[in-house]
Amino acid sequence: MNSVSGGKVVVLTGGVGGAKLVLGLAQILPPEQIVAIVNTGDDFRHLGLWISPDLDTLLYTLSGKANATQGWGREGETWQFMSALRSLGGEGWFQLGDGDLALHVLRTAALAQGETLSTITQRFGADWNVGVRMLPMSDDPVATHLTTDEGDLPFQRYFVERRCVPRVSSIRFEGAERARAAPGVAQALRDTGTRAILIAPSNPYLSVDPILAIPEIRQALREASAPIVAISPIVGGKAVKGPTAKLMEELGIEVSPAAVAAHYGELLDGMIFDRRDPVGESTLPRLSIDTLMVTLEDRVRVASAALQLADRLAE
Amino acid sequence: MNSVSGGKVVVLTGGVGGAKLVLGLAQILPPEQIVAIVNTGDDFRHLGLWISPDLDTLLYTLSGKANATQGWGREGETWQFMSALRSLGGEGWFQLGDGDLALHVLRTAALAQGETLSTITQRFGADWNVGVRMLPMSDDPVATHLTTDEGDLPFQRYFVERRCVPRVSSIRFEGAERARAAPGVAQALRDTGTRAILIAPSNPYLSVDPILAIPEIRQALREASAPIVAISPIVGGKAVKGPTAKLMEELGIEVSPAAVAAHYGELLDGMIFDRRDPVGESTLPRLSIDTLMVTLEDRVRVASAALQLADRLAE
């Protein structure tokens, strides 16, 4: 592998954690050198609207509109829609902010007119001056479902409505085997000019696996010349946010970065561990750093370490 | 004709003016004795959402949520959606308030699942404790179009986007000839227990004519035993609101209550004139009163006069 200075950095990413990493990268690289390949397994139709939570989180984060405290949605969001909706007996379990609705309504209308999720996402990014190239993993529908002790649950029912309480025994990605990678995705991964492929510290099982479940993407990763480096979503034996650790326990997997590395298997060339975690028996090239991303400086530090490891692997 | 005390009062109504009349009626009659048959010729799909402006105006007015100053939409409405929509290049000519969106999103989702506009409207009314029975004129789509000096314009493009500026040469109601009356409409008109049928002071050409253009409704009105009384939308030779007077001039019609009465023709049994207007050569039974509806007392006065004339005609 050869280091491609000035080459593109491609990130496979899910929601909040991944968006933080991409934001860190955008501080140290020209945004147009960054390509984010975003999970759409969480996407779903709700009240007739097509909702793409991970794409929106990235869009809000990179355009400076994200609600930092809450971890999702827009800063300064208002809730008149939800209030009226509830007074009319509408389903209230999924929060739709007033400003946030604009994305969903415009996306739904554009999809109904035959536009693809890719071109809609590109347009939203341009409208909000996001320089990073944001690509949905696929323009075809892929839907994450969980088999739980409460039966089969679509992702948002599990994640939002049931707040990850049900015990999970297996996860599947409906439509993934038939889905094509969105335009630009396989090319970005395969491109010999690509400097690094990063796997964001998103939930491996719920946010990254849907991306890897698309055959064309899996194949492109296998054939990629750029080093592939994951950032551990496990910090000090716990998940920073969300159900990663709980899920790993339920699936009988040790809650450790090494177990995540083992999950990604031969795909990985290296991994960023948090220094609180044991390295275990893993012989995978790694850097151990503080991976907690609280401040913007933290995001830059983690992004830099990932690039540093990738560049070292490419030498 | 016989006066049916305690019988139902049926109102054919469009937007703001009609809603004022119905609100006045609801002060002097038990709401469950009132049936409003509402124009849906203004309905349209916008950004994928199905919008029924006259139904919503009535719903907001009767549930105490209407913005009295503005004449449309909700009191205390916020506009975060429109602001985000514009920042994403979305069509900004039609104002959709944050709370208002709940009606449109829920209605669109319910229609997509095969529910009828009638049952959706009934549900919204029940959720907001509206006692008046609100019936769309039809569950089938009817679309008002205007032939103008700027070409063919769907109603909302003419009314909202072009602010009634184009000169109108003719008006048509697409789908009206094939549309069936919504469940309950023809029965309410024909019912021998009906005390009066009122035509609200809505725009005769844009708000009432679409209702009359539905064959089943026209026929039911001809066969109705209850007296039919219109309230003049012309006050002192002018329209209180909206393009009625401008439209009458463009269509070569004298701007007078008598001309409106002539337009409704044999359908009418009586009419409420404003006392500022000349009676002309009309021999139609009438009452001349102050028809301006500014306060709630005004609305009660006009509603009472219409009932008084109807009851006199039924004696």
Structure in words:
Two copies of one chain form a homodimer. The first copy, chain A, is an alpha/beta fold and 315 residues long. The first copy, chain A, has a single domain (8-45, 118-314), classed as Rossmann fold (3-Layer(aba) Sandwich). Helices cover 38% and strands 19% of the residues of chain A. The first copy, chain A, contains twelve helices and 14 strands. The first copy, chain A, has helices spanning 16-28, 53-62, 80-87, 100-112, 117-127, 155-161, 185-190, 204-212, 215-223, 244-250, 257-264, 296-314, and strands at residues 8-13, 34-38, 44-46, 49-51, 133-136, 143-148, 151-154, 168-174, 194-199, 228-231, 234-235, 238-239, 270-274, 286-289. In chain A, the strands form four sheets. In chain A, strands 5-2-1-9-10-13-14 form a seven-stranded parallel β-sheet, with helices on both faces. In chain A, strands 7-6-8 form a three-stranded antiparallel β-sheet. In chain A, helix 1 packs across helix 12 (296-314) and helix 4 packs antiparallel against helix 5 (117-127). The termini of chain A are close together. The mean pLDDT of chain A is 94. The interface between A and B is medium-sized, with 32 and 32 residues.
User: What would you give as the CATH superfamily of chain A?
Assistant: CofD-like domains
Instruction: From the alpha carbons, calculate the radius of gyration of chain A and give it in angstroms.
Output: 19 Å
CATH class designation of chain A: Alpha Beta
Number of helices of chain A: 12
Structural class of chain A: alpha/beta
Q: Name the shape of chain A in a single word.
A: globular
List low-pLDDT spans of chain A: none
From the 3D structure, determine the CATH topology of chain A: Rossmann fold
User: What is the helix content of chain A?
Assistant: 25-40%
Instruction: Return the CATH architecture of chain A.
Output: 3-Layer(aba) Sandwich
Major beta sheet, strand line-up of chain A: 5-2-1-9-10-13-14
Count of DSSP strands of chain A:
14
Measured distance between first and last alpha carbons of chain A: 7 Å
**Average predicted local confidence, pLDDT of chain A:** 94
β-strand percent of chain A reads 15-25%
- Count of spatially separate domains of chain A: 1
Assembly state of the chains shown: homodimer
